[in-house]
Amino acid sequence: MATKSFEVQLSAAGGTSSFLGKLQVEHVKIKNLYVAGKSVYFETDSKGIQTIRRFRRKYRVKVKISRIGSDSIQFRLFASFLFLIGCLLPLLASMFLWNVHVDSEVPELAERLEKKLTKAHIVVPSLLSKLPEEDEMRRMLMQDEPALSWIRFKQAGTSLQVTPMLAPLSTDVKEERKEKPSHLVAKTGGVITHFALTRGERASIIHQTVKKGDLLATGILEQGEKTTVVGADGEVFADYWLEVHFELPRTVSYSSLGEEQVNVKWRVPWFESKSGTYTVRSPINVIKTRKDPVHTVRLKKGMEESVILPLLRYDLLSKKQNELLIKEENILHVSFTNDKVKGTLLFLINENIAEKRPITQGD
User: Fold this and answer.
1) Rounded Cα–Cα distance for residues 147 and 165 (Å)
2) What pLDDT does residue 113 have?
3) Long-range CB contacts (< 8 A, 24+ apart) of 77-85?
C-alpha cells in the first residue's frame, strides 16, 4: 500500500523559526529536519499537512509539499491496479441490464406488465446475454392482455424500454353473434409445450405428441353426474417441424434500415404568422433524416446461411398471421443454376395449433 508521508520545504523572508514553533504547539509530527540554504526541510504526515496549510498565510511562509514514495515500485503498482479496476468496472457494468422501463399511459397496464417481467426474471441487474428473444418476451407479455395489439422493445445500452401498443377502439357498432360452444382441436401435428386457456378443460398434457384433429381442450365440463357445456377457448402452443421448398432468382434486391441522422439547428424563438402576430416557438429545430439503402446481390454458394436462410425466415414470419417462434432451422438441400436457386429448408416452429370445432350432439 502507498505511504502517506510528505516532505515539506519551508522558506520565509523573516525566517521559519516562529512557524516551526507554532507547529510544535499544534503537535505536528516532524522528523528528519534539516536546513539547506535558506530553506528548511522535514517530513510529516497528512494531519500535519492540514495544519501547515491552515497557518502558512498567517506566518507568510512559502510551502512546497511533495509526497514521499510516489515514485516507488509499490506506488506505481498500486496506481496501475486502480487504473485497471477503473477500466474494468465500466466494461463489466455494460454487460448488465440496469434499467427496465414500461412506457404506458395506463398505470394499471404498466403495473401488470412489470409484474410479468419480474416473474420472467427480467429484472435489474441481470446479464444482457440472458435476456429472452423479443418474440418470446412479446408472447409472454401479451398473454391475457386482449387490449394490446403489439409490444415494441427498444434496447439502448444497458436500458430496456417496453412500449405496449393498445389495439384501436372500433367505432363500428356490430351485432353480437353468439358463438356456438366448441372444442379445441389440433390444426397440425406437434409436441405440446404449454397451454393458455381462458375457458374449457385440458384434454391433453404438456409434452404430449398430437396429430391433426386430436382433441386439445374440451368445452364440456363434468362434475359427478352433472355435465355442463361451456365451450373451450384460448391457445395451445406446440413444437412442430415445417419443411419449406423455395425457388429464388439468382439476383435479389433488398433494403436495409439506414442510419438515422439528427441535425440540430438554432433559430430565433419567435416568428411572425400570416396575420401579423408573433408566436413563441422552441429555439431548437431538430431535423431527423434517414435513407434506407437498397442492395442488390447475386446469390452464390456460401451464402446459404448468411443471405438465403435469413430471407426465407423473414418471409415465413411475414406470411404467418399468428405469432410464432422459430426455435431451430436446418438447410436440407440447395442447388444453383444460371438464373435460379432452389432448395429445401426445415424449421422447428412453436405456435398456437388450436382451432375450434363446434360441439355436436354426438359429443
Assistant:
1) 9
2) 84
3) 78/1, 78/2, 79/2
- Can you read off the three cell numbers belonging to residue 94? 455494460
Pairing outcome for strands 220-223 and 148-156: unpaired
The residues, ordered by sequence, that sit 6+ positions from 145 with a Cβ below 8 Å of its Cβ are 109, 112, 164
- How confident is the model over 269-319, as pLDDT tens digits? 777 777 777 777 777 788 888 888 888 888 888 888 888 888 888 888 877
What confidence tens digit (pLDDT) does each residue in 161-174 have?
A: 888 877 655 444 44
What is the percentage of the chain residues whose pLDDT exceeds 70? 88
271 SS3 class: strand
Over its C-alpha atoms, the chain yields an Rg (Å, rounded) of: 37
DSSP for 317-361? HHH-SS-EEEEEEEEEEEEE-SSEEEEEEEEEEEEE-EEEEEPPT
Residue that wins the pLDDT comparison between 358 and 223: 358
- DSSP letters of 208-251? -EE-TT-EEEESEEEETTEEEE---EEEEEEEEEEEEEEEEESE
With vertex at residue 258, the alpha carbon angle to CA 253 and CA 263, rounded to the nearest 5 degrees, is 150
For residue 328 the three cell numbers come to 431451430
Beta bridge partners of 231: none
